[in-house]
Amino acid sequence: MKGTAAGGGPRRRFAVVPVVAALLGLGTSAAFGATAGKAAAQVKPTVSVAKTYVGPLLVDKTGYTVYMFMRDKPNKDICRTIKGCERDWPAVTTVGKPVVGPGVKRSLLGTIPYQGKVRELTYNGHPLHTYRFDTGPRSVINIGNRQFHGAWYALNANGRVVK
User: Fold this and answer.
1) Can you say whether the dihedral through the CA atoms of 75, 80, 86, 89 is positive or negative?
2) Which of 39, 69, 147, 159 is deepest in the core (most CB within 10 A)?
3) Mean pLDDT, rounded, for 90-113
4) What is the pLDDT of residue 44?
5) Burial class (CB within 10 angstroms; exposed 0-12, middle 13-18, buried 19+) of 8
6) pLDDT tens digits, 121-137
7) Coil, strand, or helix at residue 101?
8) How far separated are the first and last CA of the chain, in Å rounded?
9) CB atoms < 10 A from the CB of 32, how many?
10) Contact status, residue 134 vs residue 142, Cβ threshold 8 Å
11) pLDDT one-digit tens code per residue, 28-45
12) Pairing of strands 150-155, 145-147
């Protein structure tokens, strides 16, 4: 019969999405989409400025120091063309528009093509990298590191090289 379950009672519609969301550790607002304001507040900045031992520097979304390679050209990542460079000095990338964190000047933050829809971030024209051997967030011990026939330096909020 239409409208009844096998046991003779009315059919019940189950809200599957909230149950699945709860099992995955998501709130129901995440399952159904949050308001724009709440969603923006939950997104970590792609690049921020953090206080370090040598002063305020750019850091990635995990708090690790962001570097620029002196061999890079404005808006051109030379590291990608050098064997092994990208393994040790991975590009800071994003899909979509980068999120600006506190202290970052939006006018200096840009992107260049990387791979498919992924884009590499630039700041004041410098392609951005992290260092896979950094000891932790806001580490400054690798500023001035010389590898791949060039030096690696940090950047401040004004886009200037910090040596």
Assistant:
1) negative
2) 69
3) 96
4) 84
5) exposed
6) 999 999 999 999 999 99
7) coil
8) 79
9) 11
10) yes
11) 333 334 444 444 455 789
12) antiparallel
